[in-house]
Amino acid sequence: REPVDPDDVFTASSDRLYAFFDVRNDGEDEAYLSVTFEGPAGRSTGHVELSVPAGAPRWRTWAWTRHATEPGTWQAVLRDEGGALLARHDFVVE
What we know:
mainly beta
């Protein structure tokens, strides 16, 4: 499944904010990724750990938070297990 009508602007009263990722793992071992939602004042929430099976040519997964409530520009950040940045996407909470 994939997101229907994705958006980049949300209200502070939104129940959950989801980040969807389409990744692959060319390695022979399971890969571990982490997702954080980083707010305008440096606040970080979520801290979701995801695993991607070894040899997965395409793996769709997601993370969510209920704590992105401070108005401003936030970022959904995806990192590998070593902390290297893999992806970052801005969204706004009003």
